[in-house]
Amino acid sequence: MSDERTDLLRAHIRDVPDFPKEGILFKDITPLLASPKAFVTALDLFAEAWAGEHLDAVVGIESRGFIFGAALAARIGVGFVPVRKPGKLPAATERVEYELEYGKDAVEIHLDALQTGDRVVLLDDLIATGGTAAAALELIRRRGAVPVGAGFVIELAFLAGREKLSDVSITSLLTY
Domains of the chain by range and CATH? Predict the structure, then answer.
């Protein structure tokens, strides 16, 4: 995807070398969030990706997925469902653990967040190795919902996270 809209988005991504640790080139979305034009453009592109689809909710992954997910849900007139790190949601939850390079992590969703048959899209700011997104999709399916697609502002293609999500349609606004 490359046109003047994605060029606008790309112009609002800041590279931060050696963050969070040496050797990592961090893709910072905060300049995109600070630009109303760039932020609205990202939302436009996500809305267009699923135009014509019946959706019941947008599921966003903590924490930057909340920003894009809640805004998109409000824009298209559906509910927003948060997927969070363990212990952050106040009611009964379901949890999925997933492997990290060194250890494990987990994400949770409220048991009553989705209904059987709900059609949803998953949204986050970035897909790297795909572990968190794959775990969130597993939570969606365990609740009986149907993932229509997954969207990311940035895809780090060299980390091959897309391969962990091969059973769902992926929309990445920018690929590095």
Answer: 43-175 (3.40.50.2020)
